[in-house]
Design a protein that fits this description.
Rossmann fold; disordered N terminus; 40% helix; alpha/beta
């Protein structure tokens, strides 16, 4: 699934005309967590590298350390031949510290969904966009940014319920967009209903 339509990503999808433009918010797949991703299926599609969000994707938003389970997952991903780059809107010191701990490159202060951080990540990975998957917990940063670059996009549920106030607000818009995508048959029913659980706090 590839999208090249012009974007007005400051505007909620409810006010955008036509399903083609709505698709820029649509992930190629939705899973519960990083651990649920089918890496063999990605490899079969020609995916060679992963651009992964940090907060609430690799680790909780307010966490200081990555869990041993996620560390083992990263090691396993590398062992399968995938390259990894962290792309985070977070501050440089924290992002670089975690990247060094995992021995992967990183793009901190990314300002996703801008294209520039994804271009930088692709350069660090030495892969093309069609060989790269973008993984994250937010539609308006990770999925939108990955779709703008024509990467394969995977939306996962956030690890923690703790988030920035601005993120909690955007979750409300995100929920409405995913509802529309679900009604149009663009996201699977099971994945959509699993995702609904994260919005109960709102």
């Amino acid at each position: 699934m590839r999208f090249s339509s012009p974007l007005f990503f400051g505007c909620p999808a409810e006010f955008l005309g036509g399903s083609a433009l709505l698709k820029v918010f649509c992930p190629n797949e939705m899973t519960g967590s990083l651990l649920d991703i089918d890496l063999n299926a990605l490899a079969a599609q020609g995916i060679k590298a992963l651009i992964i969000d940090l907060d609430n994707t690799l680790m909780g938003w307010d966490a200081e350390q990555i869990t041993s389970q996620i560390k083992k997952w990263v090691q396993m991903v590398k062992a399968k031949g995938f390259r990894i780059c962290i792309a985070s809107n977070g501050l440089s010191n924290r992002v670089k510290r975690i990247a060094a701990e995992l021995d992967v490159p990183a793009v901190p202060k990314a300002i996703k969904p801008r294209k520039r951080p994804f271009r930088l990540a692709l350069r660090l990975l030495n892969t093309r966009s069609d060989q790269t998957a973008v993984i994250g917990d937010q539609v308006f940063t990770d999925i939108l940014g990955g779709n703008r670059m024509n990467c394969y996009t995977i939306l996962i549920n956030p690890i923690s319920r703790k988030e920035l106030r601005s993120t909690r607000f955007m979750r409300r818009v995100e929920r409405r967009i995913l509802r529309r995508l679900h009604k149009k048959g663009l996201v699977q029913d099971k994945s959509y209903r699993q995702r609904l659980g994260i919005y109960k706090r709102d």
